[in-house]
Specification:
single chain; 3 strands; 2% strand; mainly alpha; 19 helices
C-alpha cells in the first residue's frame, strides 16, 4: 500500500503541474479576450460617434496590459488634432496616474499633457508640466521651447530670463535668439522708465546670448542718440548692416541724421554706396542718388538711377525717377502728366505691404519684432523685389 502511494505521488504532482499550467493559459487567454472585447466595444462606440463611452472603454483596457500605452497616445493625439482637448486631457491624465508605466512613458505622458494644457490656453498648468521635464534627456529641450513660448505669450520676460542657465546648456541657437529678445523686451521697458544704465546692461546680455541680434544694436543706438553720443550710434547702425542687411533699410534715415550731427556726411555716403553695391537695395539707391544730385547735379544723378533701374527695376525706384523728372521739367503740361504718374505709383505702393515674415510669409504694413502669425523673433523684414527693396 505504501509502495503504491509513492508510485502515485509523482503522477499526482505531474497532474497538478499540468492543470496549473492549463489554468495560467486559460487566465491569459481570458485576459486577452477581455482586452479584445474592451477594444472592440470601444471602437464600436467611436465609430458610432459616442466618443465619451469609447474613451472609457479604451482607457479601461490600459489596466490590462502595458502594450496599449502607444495606442492611447495615438488616440489622445488624434483628439487634440481634432480640437477635442477635453478628451485628449482625459486620456493623458489617466496615463500620468499609472504607476506601473516606464519612466520614458511617464515623461511622454507629462509632455503630451503639457501640450494639451497649452492648446487649451491653460498656461499655468502647462508650465508646471514642462518645468517637471527640464532635466529629461528626451523632452528637456522641447519643454524649454514650450516654456519660452508660454512666457512670450504672457509677456513674462523675467521668467524666461530665469531659464538662462538651462538655455545656455542646450546651445540651441533658436532658444538663445529668443532669450536675447527677452532681454530686449526688458531693455525697452527700462528705456521707457529712463533707467539707461540698466538698459545697456540688458542689451549687452542680449548680444552675449545672440551676437546677431540686430534689435539689440537698434535699441543701443537709440540710447546713444538720446545722450548725443552719435559716433557710438553710428557704429551700432553699421553693426546692424553686418548682422542683417535685409533689415538695414529701416535704419538709413536715423543713421544719416547721426552722421550729419558729426558733420561726416561724406563718410556716410561712402558707406551707403558700398551697401548699395552689395545689396542693390532701393532705399540705399534713393539715398545715394539724392546725394549725387545735391553734390554733382541732376544729370549725373539721373544717369546713375537710370542705369540702376535697368539692372534691377523696382516701383519705388521708378517713383523717385519720376519725381526727379518733375523737378527738371520746364513745361507745365509735362510736369502735370508726371505728377499724375507719380500719384498713381504712390497709391499703388500705399496698398502694398511693407514687411514680410521670412519664416511664415505673414505680410504687414507695420513692423513687429515678433511676427503676429508665427511669433518668431526678428523675422519681419522689408519686402524685396519689384514692389519693395
Amino acid at each position: 500500500m505504501l509502495e503504491l502511494l509513492f508510485l502515485l505521488l509523482p503522477i499526482a504532482m505531474g497532474y497538478g503541474w499540468f492543470m496549473g499550467r492549463n489554468s495560467i493559459k486559460q487566465n491569459t487567454h481570458s485576459e486577452k479576450q477581455d482586452l479584445s472585447i474592451k477594444y472592440s466595444t470601444g471602437l464600436n462606440y467611436l465609430f458610432s460617434n459616442q466618443q465619451d463611452k469609447a474613451i472609457d472603454y479604451l482607457i479601461e483596457a490600459l489596466k490590462v496590459e502595458d502594450d496599449t500605452v502607444e495606442a492611447h497616445f495615438a488616440l489622445a493625439n488624434l483628439f487634440r488634432k481634432r480640437g477635442e482637448l477635453d478628451r485628449a486631457l482625459k486620456v493623458h491624465e489617466h496615463l500620468v496616474r499609472q504607476k506601473h508605466l516606464r519612466s520614458e512613458e511617464k515623461q511622454q505622458a507629462l509632455f503630451e499633457l503639457g501640450k494639451d494644457f497649452l492648446s487649451a490656453g491653460l498656461f499655468d498648468r502647462a508650465e508646471s508640466m514642462f518645468l517637471k521635464l527640464l532635466k529629461s534627456k528626451q523632452f528637456g529641450l522641447k519643454s524649454l521651447s514650450y516654456l519660452m513660448q508660454i512666457y512670450q505669450s504672457t509677456k513674462d520676460w523675467d521668467q524666461g530670463v530665469a531659464l538662462k542657465k538651462a538655455i545656455i546648456k542646450t546651445r540651441d541657437k533658436k532658444l538663445m535668439h529668443t532669450l536675447a529678445n527677452f532681454y530686449c523686451e526688458l531693455a525697452t521697458s527700462a528705456f521707457e522708465n529712463e533707467q539707461f544704465i540698466e538698459v545697456l546692461e540688458l542689451l549687452e546680455n542680449a548680444l552675449v546670448q545672440d551676437p546677431n541680434s540686430c534689435r539689440a544694436n537698434w535699441l543701443m543706438a537709440r540710447i546713444y542718440e538720446h545722450h548725443e553720443q552719435y559716433e557710438q550710434a553710428c557704429r551700432c547702425y553699421q553693426d546692424i548692416y553686418h548682422q542683417d542687411s535685409e533689415f538695414f533699410p529701416d535704419v538709413i534715415e536715423k543713421m544719416q541724421l547721426c552722421y550729419t550731427k558729426l558733420d561726416a556726411q561724406d563718410t556716410f555716403y561712402k558707406f551707403i554706396r558700398k551697401v548699395y553695391e552689395e545689396t542693390a537695395s532701393t532705399s540705399t539707391l534713393i539715398c545715394y542718388v539724392n546725394h549725387l544730385e545735391s553734390k554733382h547735379g541732376t544729370k549725373k544723378a539721373t544717369d546713375f538711377i537710370l542705369s540702376a533701374l535697368k539692372r534691377r527695376p523696382t516701383i519705388r525706384g521708378f517713383k523717385h525717377f519720376v519725381k526727379m523728372q518733375m523737378s527738371q521739367s520746364e513745361q507745365q503740361t509735362t510736369s502735370e502728366h508726371l505728377d499724375v504718374i507719380k500719384e498713381l505709383i504712390s497709391a499703388y505702393i500705399n496698398v502694398k505691404h511693407r514687411y514680410s515674415c521670412r519664416t511664415c510669409g505673414f505680410n504687414s504694413s507695420t513692423h513687429y519684432w515678433s511676427c503676429p502669425s508665427c511669433h518668431d523673433w526678428e523675422q519681419l523684414k522689408p519686402v524685396r523685389g519689384l514692389e519693395g527693396e
